[in-house]
Amino acid sequence: MSPRLTGSRDQATAIAVGVVASPEVDSLLRALAAQENAPRLRVVIADSGADAHVSATVQAWVRATAVDAVVVQAPTSVMGARNAILDAVTTDEHRGWWVTFPEGPDTFASDYLARMAQVLSPEFCVASARQHQYRPETGRARRHVQLDGPFEDGGAVKVDLARSPEMFPIVMRTAFIALDVISDAGLRFDPELEHGFGDLDLLCRALLAAPSPTAVFADVEYLFTERDDVSTAGRSYFAHEPKFTTVLEVGHLGLLDAADDGQGVAEFVQHAVLFDLGWYFRGDEAPSSQMNAEMHGVDARFHALVAAILARVDLHVLEGLSPRRLPIDRYVAWRYGYSAVDWHGSPVLLTELDSRRRLVCLSYHYVGQLPRETVLLDGRASEPVYAKSRDVIYAGRTLARERILWVSAGPRLELSLDGVPVALGRTRPQREHTRWSPHELKAVLSGPPASTSSASTVTEVASRYLNLTRVRSWVIRSLAKAGPVRARYAGSWVLMDRVDSAHDNAEHLFKHMRAADPDRRVWFALDRTSRDYRRLKREGVGHLLAYGSLRWMLVCLNATHVVSSQAGPYVDSPQSLRSIQRLRWRFVFLQHGVVHTGLHRWLNRRSFDLFLTSTSDEYAAIVGDGSPYRFTPREVALTGMPRFDRLMRLAADVSDRSAIVVAPTWRESLFSSGADARGLRDERDDFAETEYASQWRAFLTSSELRDVARASGKRIDFMPHPNIKPYLDQFGLPDDVNVLSYETHDIQRVLADAAVLVTDYSSIAFDAAFIARPVVYFQFDRSDVFRGSHTTRQGYYSYDDDGFGRVVKSADEAVAAVQELADGSFEVPVEYQRRMDAAFPFRDDGACQRVIDAVAALDRPVTARSASAIPQAPPPRPSPRD
Q: I want to staple 737 with a disulfide (CB 3.0 to 4.6 A). Which of 13, 216, 325, 733 is the partner?
């Protein structure tokens, strides 16, 4: 890597800007028209003519602008449109020019092209600006972490990618490519790569065709507007089956072949391919609605192609990737998961200590057969207290496993695998990095920059230690430790549901504890301005805490337990408290509903002292051997949800159930495209035309449904998800459909009075099943919901095989299912009653006490003899495709 470039701009520099016409092109055209001191410039706009409004906008801009601009006829595909632009500029007239392809919704400053022109030189064939994530509604921009390469503030850096291949990739929207290289090599975007990788493919082929693969990285801001399309690796990037087959075969493998000179594949190409391949795996590592190959039904082909790609990657390239770019699960899957050999990691990690229960956790990854484990405590063989294997699943296939062992702490600990003692360590060793590029050596061997300042001044010291935040934290911390405060609040339990609402498991447990022992230090936290805070005040409930208040802080800083139906930083580690002192409470996660979809990507990122479940299969799916969850019976208890107690009592008091209750959930795809800085979104203008609105409208307005209701003496209660509230008038509901609200109606009373519950995917069906209320699942969009249009992922639970009622796909079928239940006096059919009975090991009003007992057990030592057995996890279900 060279030092920063400081050369002056070549006055002959000329840039062709390729623009693909789209409905979002306005901001880009404005930015181009505003360019100042620009080099020789020609804007070539590819327009298919498919959208008359877009064409009119483009033509008006061309007529009005002083910029040299032309419009060329193009296909509707992005790759085809860009090729039409290249056809227009790969001519003798454009020898020595550069081409760039900024994208429609994006923008940049008025000196963007002038500053980039200053660094363009015949010494290299590709240059890149610096991408920043931009939010137009706030005007704020931040650097893109994954794409922030070897940029240096205020300058430009030339990189020889043959020597520093890890600096690749560059994205097309920020790239400037020498047109002579494209023209001489006859390069074009591959139309088979319309669904991805087409940009990287052309960039790599241009670098391969150049005399040397050298690129320049200039600290010039390109403002990328956050969005979801094929160019951004968002959800739509993975919405098409060819992304998982054609792109890998034609794109990844085709480029690897092209980059093989007989001595091996160019390493910068390997890095580019691995960078793109990583996006396929990220969606299975984090909460995401991104589709994977299994959801498309092409997982076998996908994994075969991935194996072929990884076989072309040099081992030192894979080993050299940083843990930030290649987290441990993916590293093991790529390094060993596609081989046919047994392997286990070393050293075995010491990951957690539970001093109260005298346990320590060990973990290691393995592939193939589980090694034979021997745990020695003070030299004696001992059984682990808990032992399970967590499946590491990508695109429907288990590629590796993580072994999790909880063993007794205190005695001298040793572990052998397959008869060989293994090292126990706190951290993983650095991967076997056998080759170091100049950039990597500089990053590793260069220490932090030396301080250029002398000793701190009195003013600096004063500002550091006497700022208001520090003073405030010290005052609150001192108050919390004061004798009278500790005398009142020490040992408290703080319960809460959401910050702005209650009426969930935490409130039910709180009321039970207050009634059972009024002197117990148990508190309920809630926003003072919320409707439920006022409701609880009216009910005369004591021990309320206004969330965020000084009293809330003092109680929390003296609490031993925080208990909530929600899991998020605002509950288990609020920033306002973390800034005061280390938080030492036990966090108990009551849950909001039954886990029945694939939530391990979210839950595995959380830390719980206790995590409560309600059904036998849910418990086994989370703690079971072979599950994708990292939890064991140390953290998880099967108790039932606290709200079940009151629900059971309410149901027992209802003799004549009088309502057909309709309670659909929401869809992520129904949100408008962008959220503002507060996370709020504009309402959709086309909500009435969505399939969601049309299907539920058809059901709710059905004359046949009203006939069933009248004939059976039932009313129709519609309890929409809160996100539907702004759109209620678009359903055109008849007057005899009663619209209920979660804010003003008691959902438990609604369920207790239900003759039948009609829902779609909501876990509220488990509440209905708990009290033996018939259920109908109206799932008109099931294949879409489980294929990326919502955040739902398939888990162990099948609505067809495990659900508590019929699954239907049309409004007419839903009405027919309700009619069938009405004909049977709304009794639960035998098969569904059997499933309800099997699901819940406890059908009583004792959940609250079981929760209290489970929390108390957190402080008792546990041994292998007293520990709960670990069940086998139920197998994962394939994603629905019908």
A: 733
Compute φ and ψ for 171, nearest 5 degrees. -100, 150
pLDDT tens per residue across span 232-243? 445 567 888 999
Instruction: Supply 741's token pair.
Output: 């609200």
316 by Cβ neighbours in 10 Å (0-12 / 13-18 / 19+) ranks as: middle
Residue type, 507: E
Please give the distance of CA 305 from its chain centroid, rounded to a whole number.
Answer: 25
pTM of the model: 0.89
**For residue 755, what pLDDT band results from cuts at 50, 70 and 90?**
very high
CA dist., res. 85 & res. 80, Å (int): 9
Each residue of 486-543: pLDDT tens digit? 999 999 999 999 999 999 999 999 999 999 999 999 999 999 999 999 999 999 999 9
Phi, psi of 285 (to 5 degrees): -110, -10
User: Is 35's pLDDT higher than 70?
Assistant: yes
Burial 410-432 (b: 16+ CB within 10 A, else e): eeebebebeeeebebeeeeeebe
Report which secondary-structure segment, H or E, holds 179.
helix 179-185
Helix axes 267-282, 198-209, angle to 10 degrees: 170
Helix (H, G, I), strand (E, B) or coil at 147: coil
Q: Which pair of structure tokens corresponds to residue 334? A: 């790529």
Report the pLDDT averaged over residues 271-282.
Answer: 94
From residue 496, alpha-carbon distances to 509, 636, 830 in Å are 10, 19, 38
**CB neighbours of residue 569 within 10 Å:** 9
Token pair 């493919």 is at which residue?
201
Copy the structure tokens of residue 753.
């009075």
Vertex 81: Cα angle to 75 and 84 (nearest 5):
100
Residue type, 814: A
pLDDT band at 403 (very low <50, low <70, confident <90, very high): very high
For residues 838 and 25, give the distance between their C-alpha atoms in angstroms, rounded to a whole number.
57
Biggest CA-to-CA distance, the chain = 89
Cβ(855)–Cβ(512) under 8 Å? no
CA distance 597 to 219: 44
Q: What single letter denotes the amino acid at residue 399? A: L
Q: How many CA atoms lie within 13 A of 805 on its CB side?
A: 29
Q: Are 683 and 727 in contact (CB under 8 A)?
A: yes
- Alpha-carbon gap, residue 62 to 58, rounded angstroms: 6
Q: Is residue 393 within a helix (H) or strand (E), and if so which, with residue range?
A: strand 386-394
Quick check: helix, strand or coil at residue 400? strand
Q: How many CB atoms lie under 10 A from the CB of residue 298?
A: 18
User: Which of 680, 564, 648 minimizes the C-alpha distance to 611?
Assistant: 564
> What's the average model confidence in pLDDT over 444-463?
55
Nearest to 71 by CA among 80, 616, 81: 81
Question: 649: Cβ–Cβ under 8 A, 6 or more apart, which residues?
Answer: 845
* DSSP secondary structure code for residue 337 in this structure: I
Q: Is the dihedral of CA 743, 747, 748, 752 positive or negative?
A: positive
